[in-house]
């Protein structure tokens, strides 16, 4: 089965409470907010609206769990078993979780079924294997001493996640933190809280002790800010916009110097040389940008094509853009759903207008789709100049900016002409060009003759203003580990 060949009905969802200390509770203020279905603009349900007081309660619960016997005494192997169990429960509830993701975020059901949910389960499974392997070393010293290091959990961690891959972004945060023995206060994105709440329920079912995972739903400037500035949170991990990432780091600095990791935006260059397999490169250049309605931090939003094949590549991309099946995310044939919110749609439409008024040529698309919900036409700009707004700023929508380039040095220089540095890709049959580009480009991930290939074992994160730190792979463990050196005198 490759799942979701069939159109299914959107699920009915009841109003939601938050998870604090093992209890499902209303917010202290009693306030709620609406989660919206972006395909229609309708309200899905009411969500408890957490704020500072709720974050305080969640931090107390997480601190208590961190210091109480069931968690302190739990071996790494047992934590690993709980993570495996959670992965299995996510697989067992795949259809339900995928439907929640499509309903709340607007992503096509096939993508949620085949990418988001299985990818989420795999992350938990990968870090389950690390849970009993993250240990210290013995260290030779110059004098009559024995030194060893202990890898201890960093403590109570605050995690703030975005709405583009809600369940998956949660797994990138939860899985390494739990493997390392931390306890968690999670603040999901206000646009997409549903899958996080359901996965928190599955974590209870898996057997994580009360208070080990807590979920406070609410808005960024209130609940999110309360996490970033909390005096009893030891570390904050954030994925989202660069502007908010800067605020989080400031809040961490001004409060208690909590540890900070940030996964931020990008303006990733995707470089196609004339000697590449052009059909392949064009197909992937299309998905590099248009997958998930362009709402990917790694979106290949600056497409550089070598002059001799520019028209050929752009024709192929235009054809694919015009073939997108835009509509109901629950229709199995849909390949493009709505943007996540009206606000995001309007931001994207603003960028499209900027592209036009700055003099780029709109090859296809260029406006809103005439139907209910927040749909934007797949849009391709050519004749884009490197300093135009659409070549410099993250659009986070189905808008591709294409440019010509001359040689590998030109590709590196112009690829690096950005404040970001998240990802990059190069398409060529010439190993020397591929190697030179991979070494010269400033990006946390470089794909050679592929794009958006992720693996739980491969570290991911940004250079420059695309972030601080790496998630996934062995590198992610250091985000949730404090290293303690113990030095013991030998003899007198
Ligand atoms: P955002 O950065 O405002 O939201 C991400 C998360 O941060 C949400 O959970 C939000 O509630 C929280 N947040 C917002 N303000 C906060 C604050 N002051 N303190 C603590 N937490 C806060 O992103 P938004 O407005 O949803 O999207 C704006 C742009 O950000 C997008 O157009 C895109 O360019 C970028 N973005 C990048 C993502 C990535 O994967 N790197 C994901 C989402 C957005
Ligand atoms: Mg929603």
Overview of this structure, please?
The structure is a single chain. With 492 residues, the chain is of the alpha/beta class. It folds into 2 domains: 3-264 and 466-485, Aldehyde Dehydrogenase, Chain A, domain 1, CATH 3.40.605; 269-456, Aldehyde Dehydrogenase, Chain A, domain 2 (3-Layer(aba) Sandwich). It has 15 helices and 20 strands. It has helices at 52-67, 69-72, 76-92, 94-105, 109-130, 166-179, 194-206, 220-228, 242-254, 278-290, 310-323, 342-357, 389-392, 408-415, 431-440; strands at 18-20, 23-25, 32-36, 43-48, 138-139, 145-153, 156-160, 183-187, 213-215, 235-239, 259-263, 269-272, 302-306, 361-364, 379-382, 399-405, 423-427, 445-448, 467-468, 481-489. A 7-stranded mixed beta sheet has the order 14-15-16-13-12-17-18, with helices on both faces. Strand 12 (269-272), helix 10 and strand 13 (302-306) form a beta-alpha-beta unit. Helix 10 packs across helix 11. 54% of the residues are buried. The mean pLDDT is 97. The chain binds 1,4-dihydronicotinamide adenine dinucleotide and magnesium ion. Residues 35-36, 38, 104, 191-192 line the site of magnesium ion.
How is this fold's topology laid out?
Elements (H helix, E strand, L loop, with lengths): L17 E3 L2 E3 L6 E5 L6 E6 L3 H16 L1 H4 L3 H17 L1 H12 L3 H22 L7 E2 L5 E9 L2 E5 L5 H14 L3 E5 L6 H13 L6 E3 L4 H9 L6 E5 L2 H13 L4 E5 L5 E4 L5 H13 L11 E5 L3 H14 L18 H16 L3 E4 L14 E4 L6 H4 L6 E7 L2 H8 L7 E5 L3 H10 L4 E4 L18 E2 L12 E9 L3
Parallel strand pairs: 7-8, 7-10, 8-9, 10-11, 12-13, 12-17, 13-16, 15-16, 17-18
Antiparallel strand pairs: 1-2, 3-4, 5-6, 6-20, 11-19, 14-15
Helix pairs in contact: 1-8, 3-5, 3-7, 4-5, 4-7, 5-6, 10-11, 14-15
The protein binds 1,4-dihydronicotinamide adenine dinucleotide and magnesium ion.
1,4-dihydronicotinamide adenine dinucleotide binds next to helix 8, helix 9 and helix 12.
């Amino acid at each position: 089965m490759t799942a979701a060949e069939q159109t299914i009905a959107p699920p009915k969802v009841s109003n939601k409470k938050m998870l604090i200390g093992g209890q499902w509770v209303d917010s202290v203020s009693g306030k709620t907010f609406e989660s919206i279905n972006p395909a229609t603009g309708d309200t899905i349900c009411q969500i408890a609206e957490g704020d500072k007081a709720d974050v305080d309660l969640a931090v107390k619960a997480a601190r208590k769990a961190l210091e109480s016997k069931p968690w302190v005494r739990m071996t790494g192997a047992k934590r690993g078993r709980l993570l495996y169990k959670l992965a299995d429960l996510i697989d067992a509830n795949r259809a339900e979780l995928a439907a929640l993701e499509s309903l709340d975020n607007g992503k096509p059901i096939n993508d949620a079924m085949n990418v988001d949910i299985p990818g989420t389960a795999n992350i938990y499974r990968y870090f389950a294997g690390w849970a009993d392997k993250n240990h210290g070393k013995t260290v030779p010293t110059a004098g009559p001493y024995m030194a060893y290091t202990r890898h201890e959990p960093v403590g109570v961690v605050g995690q703030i996640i975005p709405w583009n891959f809600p369940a998956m972004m949660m797994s990138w945060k939860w899985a390494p933190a739990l493997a390392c023995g931390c306890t968690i206060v999670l603040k999901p994105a206000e646009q997409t809280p549903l899958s996080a709440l359901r996965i928190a329920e599955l974590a209870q079912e898996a057997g994580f002790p009360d208070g080990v995972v807590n979920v406070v739903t609410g808005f960024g400037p209130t609940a999110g800010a309360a996490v970033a500035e909390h005096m009893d949170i030891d570390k904050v991990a954030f994925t989202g916009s660069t502007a908010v990432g800067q605020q989080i780091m400031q809040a961490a600095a001004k409060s208690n110097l909590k540890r900070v990791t940030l996964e931020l935006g990008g303006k990733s260059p995707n470089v196609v040389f004339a000697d590449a397999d052009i059909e392949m490169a064009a197909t992937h250049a299309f998905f590099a940008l248009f997958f998930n309605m362009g709402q990917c931090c790694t979106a290949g939003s600056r497409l550089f094509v070598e002059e001799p094949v520019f028209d050929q590549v752009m024709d192929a991309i235009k054809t694919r853009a015009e073939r997108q099946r835009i509509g109901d995310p629950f229709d199995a044939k849909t390949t493009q759903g709505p943007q996540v919110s009206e606000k995001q749609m309007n931001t994207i439409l603003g960028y499209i207008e900027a592209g036009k008024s700055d003099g780029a040529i709109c090859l296809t698309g260029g406006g809103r789709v005439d139907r209910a919900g927040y749909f934007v036409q797949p849009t391709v700009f050519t004749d884009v100049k490197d300093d135009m707004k659409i070549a410099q700023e993250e659009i986070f929508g189905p808008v591709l900016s294409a440019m010509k380039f001359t040689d590998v040095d030109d590709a590196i220089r112009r690829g690096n002409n950005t404040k970001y540095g998240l990802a990059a890709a190069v398409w060529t049959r010439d190993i020397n060009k591929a190697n030179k580009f991979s070494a010269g480009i400033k990006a946390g991930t470089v794909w050679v003759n592929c794009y958006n290939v992720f693996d739980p074992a491969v570290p991911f994160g940004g250079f420059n203003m695309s972030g601080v730190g790496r998630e996934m792979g062995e590198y992610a463990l250091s985000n949730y580990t404090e290293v303690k050196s113990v030095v013991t005198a030998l003899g007198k």
